[in-house]
Amino acid sequence: MTSSLIALMFLSLFLGFGCWLVFLWAVRKGEFSDIERPKHRMLEEDEPDKPKDKGAGG
To answer: 10-57: per-residue pLDDT in tens?
Structure first.
């Protein structure tokens, strides 16, 4: 019983440390540098694509 608890405690510490490393990697990569821009970009209207000309003859 106690050996399984110790194993689960080490497993949880290992997973927590892994999540912390992933978080630090994301911060250093710049994933959280601008968290406001995607919200506003979603509301901007895209300009419609111009239709391509099929030639002079139509």
So the answer is: 999 999 999 999 999 999 998 888 778 777 777 877 777 777 766 665
Q: Where are the domains of the chain?
A: 2-42
For the chain, the C-alpha Rg in angstroms (whole number) is 26
SS3 per-residue string spanning the chain: CHHHHHHHHHHHHHHHHHHHHHHHHHHHHCCCCCCCHHHHHHHCCCCCCCCCCCCCCC
pTM above 0.90, yes or no: no
